[in-house]
TrEMBL record:
Domain annotation Nitric oxide reductase subunit B cytochrome c-like: ranges: 37-217
Keywords for the protein's UniProt record, in alphabetical order: Membrane, Transmembrane, Transmembrane helix
Protein name: Nitric-oxide reductase large subunit
Species of origin: Castellaniella daejeonensis
Source taxon at top rank: Bacteria
Pfam families recorded: COX1, NorB_cytochrome_c-like
Residues passing through the membrane, by range: 7-26, 230-252, 285-308, 335-357, 369-393, 413-434, 446-467, 479-503, 515-535, 547-570, 591-619, 631-653, 665-687, 724-742
């Protein structure tokens, strides 16, 4: 460890404590998850539903697209309602009407204020009371509630079928006709929706809050933020301010310009190492990146259009075979595939450099095998998604071959296993170059950190295999966010930071010592907040107050390192002045600068917007979440993967010159297009929904009447402008990469004596 001993011990200590907390809280999730009753019965013993039927309903929900059709407990897509909030409000309204008819012979809305207040008090007493018997596993409901459940289930039977009376609602929700063709599956679906609403309205034993910490906001039964919610929201802001203050102090007292690296090399050191066979084989990876990228953004425009026309594309009915749920799935999965491919490519490009400028034995074969395995997983998973949502697969095959139903891990389990094995194989290919390099003499601290990040990326995706088709929803969410948050936002962040530091130090642009200190410090900060901060996605997913407290506190610290990214961006941009040949890397550097900008705003500002418990209580599942998702996923990891792609392209095609006008158009169109998407559509809609959620209830903010207002329709249409600008930028990047890859002159090993000298 040498002079870096304190930083290494800090990182090790942070990881031990952070994962200890995450594991301890995982035990809490398992032990305190809302019970799934063995039976729901009426007072006279009539069985309303069973545990098996509830779990079958969870499978039916997954087969219909799951989180791509509306959301559960706030997690999922935003066009259709949140089914938990929607079911709860419909059932409550049905109970009130039944009670009003029985006592007054009128509907609830026709009663005067005093009569309404009496019935609403009785409603709250019945729904907040927990009738679950731990000894028998039975939940008892009144006859009136059983009738309200049946009425609500009838609505969902019609909505998820093809009943003509709800055609306009399906259109508003971007649902295809016959979303769930089987009547039996629709009945089971209703059982599952009921259970999620029961957990959201019934007090957890020993508390005055529901199993979901009183989410969703539902004034009819006083589902309002808890005192703990307010307290830990305030604490999270205080911790954020303290964290930023301590970071500024630490920066002021300990930061100094690292030892002078001296003059930059006269020629690019990477170009002095001849391309190996495995590096030349990476061209197809770069092509796959831009092919999937352009496919994804066109599918994204198609998906966004569904939010205004519902079932048609400019009047053409395409929803029968390409419904919103399917194209949204493809949009997300394509993004994850091309971003991951960009990261795989930069890693494989570095391996021969680590290995002394030569390939490990059969490395090219491994690179080729990994590529075609990736193609198989992409094609197989996309085909499975289509077959599942079109209900072409037998029900028992859906989870394994078709659609898991969970956002960001929608691909069937078989394809998920294939993806995991592919990443593990990538890890094997990486270690074949890393291990020999670690055995060499010299300072290997930066390489050790890079190695650790590679190993974590290779293994931690496996957390997505820790749940099954009928795993409890709270437990599933715990593991799903290990993939979506911890794997992506944690280890990918460390990998990217370390990979850039390693590359720049290898090129002689920064000192190895400075790069090592910066990378270790960044890793400590990222993992300190990011690891326990994973739990902030679980505030309202059937978890307890301790999880809210820990998640709010640590996730606030996630923002702290992002405040200094402006300096990092400036430092990266200044590297182009270190040597004349760095001008050839100006465009990859610009993309890395964009990463720092969007990390600060997309992950930092918009991330903290949805982070404190009190904020997320009202805006979970609204378009404010989509603001953070687009700005962070593309703004950070998308630009980073494209930057890696352009970086590798520059060395695969050493004679290539970036097309300045094309790259300028591409770069600024993507940035401006992303800003337009957010500022003209997603953020205004999200803020209006926030007001609706706070003033009326979550069900209203996600409901048909609110979402189909003219102003919101107009705002969804205006997103088209941002989409078009962004697509122009995406096409520009694709054209640059494709023309360079297929340009024979650019692929030549040298075009002049100077370049030839560099490569020998």
């Amino acid at each position: 460890m040498g002079e870096y001993k304190k930083l290494w011990w800090a990182l090790i200590g942070v990881l031990v404590v952070a994962f200890g907390i995450l594991g301890w809280m995982g035990k809490e999730v398992y032990n305190q998850a809302p019970p799934i009753p063995a039976q729901v019965v009426t007072a006279d013993g009539q069985v309303v539903m069973t545990q098996e039927q509830i779990l079958d309903g969870q499978s039916a929900w997954q087969s219909a697209g799951g989180m791509t059709v509306g959301s559960i407990w706030g997690h999922g897509a935003y066009q259709a309602p949140d089914w938990t909030a929607d079911w709860l409000h419909r059932e409550l309204s049905a109970w009130l009407d039944l009670a009003a008819q029985a006592q007054y012979g009128l509907n609830f809305a026709q009663l005067d204020g005093d009569a309404q207040a009496v019935l609403q008090r009785r409603l709250k007493e019945e729904y907040r009371k927990n009738t679950y018997d731990p000894a028998t596993g039975v939940v008892t409901v009144s006859d009136r509630r059983a009738k309200a459940i049946a009425e609500t289930a009838s609505y969902y039977d019609k909505l998820f079928g093809d009943d003509a009376s709800l055609h306009s609602s399906r259109k508003s929700f971007a649902m295809k006709e016959g979303t769930l063709p089987s009547p039996e599956a629709r009945a089971r679906l209703a059982n599952f929706f009921f259970w999620t609403a029961w957990a959201a309205s019934t007090d957890r034993p020993g508390t005055e809050a529901s199993y979901t910490n009183n989410w969703p906001h539902e004034p009819l039964i006083d589902n309002v933020p808890t005192a703990e919610n307010i307290i830990w929201s305030v604490m999270s802001v205080i911790i954020l301010i303290a964290g930023v203050g301590l970071l500024v102090w630490a920066w002021a007292f300990t930061h100094k310009e690292h030892d002078d690296v001296g003059a930059a090399p006269a020629r690019d050191p990477v170009l002095q190492i001849p391309l190996t066979a495995s590096q030349r084989a990476l061209g197809k990876y770069l092509f796959l990146v831009v092919a999937l990228f352009v496919s994804q953004i066109f599918i994204g425009g198609f998906t966004a259009h569904y939010t205004v026309e519902g079932q048609t594309f400019y009047g053409i009915n395409v929803s029968e075979w390409l419904p919103y749920s399917l194209v949204r799935t493809w949009h997300i999965q394509a993004a994850l595939f091309w971003i991951a491919t960009g990261f795989l490519a930069i890693g494989l490009f570095v391996v021969p450099i680590l290995n002394g400028g030569k390939d490990p034995k059969h490395q090219k074969l491994g690179v080729d095998v990994l590529f075609w395995a990736l193609i198989l997983v992409v094609v197989g998973s996309f085909t499975g998604n289509f077959a599942a949502i079109a209900h072409l697969l037998p029900a028992e095959w859906n989870f394994w071959l078709g659609h898991q139903g969970y956002e960001y891990v929608e691909l069937g389990r078989l394809w998920q296993i294939g993806k995991f094995l592919g990443i593990v194989f990538w890890l094997f290919l990486m270690l074949r170059g890393i291990v020999p390099a670690l055995k060499q003499k010299g300072d290997k601290n930066l390489l050790a950190l890079f190695s650790a990040a590679v190993i974590c990326i290779g293994l931690f995706y496996g957390a997505g295999l820790a749940y099954g088709e009928k795993t409890h929803l709270s437990v599933m969410e715990y593991w799903r966010w290990w993939v979506v948050h911890l794997w992506v936002e944690g280890f990918f962040e460390v990998f990217a930071t370390t990979a850039l530091a390693f590359i720049f130090s290898t090129m002689g642009l920064v000192s190895k010592r400075g790069a090592t200190i910066a990378s270790l410090s960044s890793a400590v900060l990222f993992m300190l907040g990011g690891t326990p901060g994973t739990l902030h996605h679980l505030y309202f997913s059937g978890t307890t107050t301790p999880i809210m407290a820990i998640a709010a506190s640590f996730s606030a610290l996630e923002v702290v390192p992002l405040v200094v990214l402006g300096y990092e961006a400036w430092e990266n941009w200044r590297l182009k002045e270190r040597a004349p040949w760095m001008e050839n890397l100006r465009w990859p550097l610009k993309f890395f600068v964009a990463v720092a900008f969007w990390n600060m705003f997309g992950a930092g500002v918009f991330g903290f917007m949805v982070n404190p418990p009190i904020a997320l209580y009202y805006i979970q599942g609204l378009n404010t979440t989509a603001v953070h998702a687009h700005a962070a996923l593309f703004g950070v990891y998308g630009f980073l993967a494209l930057g890696f792609t352009l970086f590798v392209l520059r060395y695969l095609r050493p004679s290539m010159q970036f097309n300045e006008s094309l790259m300028k158009t591409a770069f600024w169109c993507m940035n401006i297009g992303l800003v337009m998407m957010i500022s003209l559509s997603l953020l205004p809609i999200g803020l209006m929904q926030f007001h609706a959620s706070y003033s009326v209830g979550t069900w209203w903010a996600r409901g048909e009447a609110f979402m189909q207002q003219d102003i919101l329709q107009t705002l969804r249409w205006t997103r088209t402008f941002g989409d078009v600008v962004f697509i122009v930028g995406g096409l520009g990047v694709m054209w640059q990469v494709v023309t360079a890859l297929f340009d024979g002159k650019a692929a030549a090993p040298a075009v002049d004596a100077g370049l030839a000298a560099q490569r020998t």
